[in-house]
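Hi U.,

Before I forget, here's the chain from the pilot set. I'm dumping it here mostly so it's searchable later in email.
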Amino acid sequence: MLRRTNLIRSALCLGLVWMAGFGSHLFAHPGHGIDGDDYSLRHYTTEPVHLVVPALVVVAIAVIAGVVVWKARSQNRQQ
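Structure:
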């Protein structure tokens, strides 16, 4: 059972790294480079596309932390 959990966790981490590294090319939009607002703070805070990866990372951390706490509590109840 433990090996399966580690495999799932590794796959989720790999997926997050993949999305962070390569997923941004799938959401191409105006605002970068010659035609747009370049790389200003306003652009990054007003474009929802830039919030997708950080939001997914926060959700993943919260889920992993929740699972760890839940497992620790269930082990303490068994003792």
